[in-house]
Amino acid sequence: MSRFSVVPSGDESPEGATRPVPLEQLLRRAATGDETAFAELYDAVSSRLFGLVRRVVRDPAQAEEVTQEVFLEIWRHSARFDPSKGAALSWMLTIAHRKAVDRVRSAEASRNRDEGYGASNQDVTHDSTAEAVVERLDAERVHRALETLTPVQRQALELAYLSGYTHTEVATMLDLPLGTAKTRIRDGLIRLRDTLGVTL
Amino acid sequence: MSEDIHALSGAYAVDALDDVERARFERHLAGCPACRAEVDGLVAAASELSVLTEAAPPASLRAKVLAEIATVRPLPPLTAPQAESGDDAVTSAPPAPSQPAAEAAPAESHGDQGRHADELSERRRSRSARGLARGWRVVVAAATVAVLAIGGFTVWRQIDKDPSRALADQVLAAPDATRYGARLAGGATATIVRSTSLQKAVIVTSGMAQPPTGKVFQLWLQDATGHMTSAGLMPGGGDQVVVLSGDASHSKGAGITVEPAGGSDQPTTNPIAFVAFA
């Protein structure tokens, strides 16, 4: 992960100035039952996974519960990760997203999750300044890429991915003709993929 | 309809399909390498959005996670497909170009998916058994099972090798297809999709536990007099798409019961799910 290696890590790090171990390698070690590797993996990705889960689920206690299930699942399936189909982080985020969406849909009626998308964007609570800078750059890059989408594509994508609504619900919320929200989501994702230069 | 289904790739990549659409799309994916490659790319693009939502979890979570994983053995890696999986229809799907290990993944997925579901539901059952008066229940394995379908390991949802697969697809895509949903304990869902013109009903389940040892899930169609006729057995729990046998065009409802292995002539237990076609 370049974002963890752009800025040399502080000397309090147990690894000193050595490059962080790639997530793929940590997963491979976890697959052999290496709990230390998994702890390292947890430290590297827990903010990404928990943040996404919490954004979708909203309720902090449930978000914590879901995140715990997500890590258990990652641990159990670590040997099944296939790097040819995508990056390790993306794989873990996929697991987290699906679990979060399942949780909100099964508890739909009881929760109000209509607050705006911008509201939870400033949650980065890391103390490391260097890391925060890298994160901010990453976030800016994604923000810029999102700006290349049409407003409808962006809204549809955010409602689907960050709020966990189905494309049918998104169509209703955005007053789109039935069946077009899925196209907007797909077009938006394609634009995002191409702008960010996502490669597998 | 097939042009239409390609367009679901984006919604699929961000988990924005409902259970029935997801089942349909995953059946499509199994035979569409272009969609598989597209989904991989769109999933990767979507996950970039998570930099916008980063937030550190409470410090206590770390200890909980590490304590929990210490008690669980990671699953073994996927190994080469077994010869007998060759009778699985899914093996006829062309390998995905983007995926060198494609031959291994889809070919063995039929059995593997079941294995995941078994292991997971077993584990969950044993975890939850303490709190349960009943000997079994439907639990949420939905996330667990379905998530296997995308991301680094692709495990295609179980696909029937018989013509019922094509029939199921027809019913799900029929213009007069009508859905009747049932929510089961633990967040699992069962949706019956009926097409009167095709005289058939299909059940789409998400997150069902495996039946207890020695038991099976049996499907039923109810006629106007309230009589239940067997509509066949379900292959297991997890996420399933199964055509109910028999003519469903005049049925008044459909249900699932737990029966002894081999099934029963009449339901011997209360349905775990029942939907009225009203």
How would you characterize this protein structure?
Chain A: Residues 140-192 form the RNA polymerase sigma factor 70 region 4 type domain. Chain A: Belongs to the sigma-70 factor family. ECF subfamily. Chain A: Residues 1-20 are annotated as: Disordered. The complex is a heterodimer of chains A (200) and B (278). Chain A has 200 residues and is an all-alpha fold. Chain A folds into 2 domains: 1-114, Rna Polymerase Sigma Factor, Chain: A (Orthogonal Bundle); 123-200, Arc Repressor Mutant, subunit A (Orthogonal Bundle), CATH 1.10.10. Chain A has 8 helices and no strands. Chain A has helices at residues 23-31, 35-57, 60-76, 88-106, 129-147, 151-162, 167-173, 181-196. In chain A, helix 1 packs across helix 2, helix 2 runs antiparallel to helix 3 and helix 5 crosses helix 8 (181-196). The longest helix of chain A is centred in the first third of the chain and has 23 residues, at 35-57. Residues 1-17 and 109-127 of chain A have low confidence and may be disordered. By secondary structure, chain B is α+β, with helices and mostly antiparallel strands. In chain B, the strands form 2 sheets. A 4-stranded antiparallel sheet of chain B has the order 1-2-3-6. A 4-stranded antiparallel sheet of chain B has the order 5-4-7-8, with no helix packed on it. Chain B has a domain at 79-90 and 108-278. Chains A and B meet through helix 2, helix 3, helix 4, helix 5 and helix 6 of A and helix 2, helix 4, helix 5 and helix 7 of B.
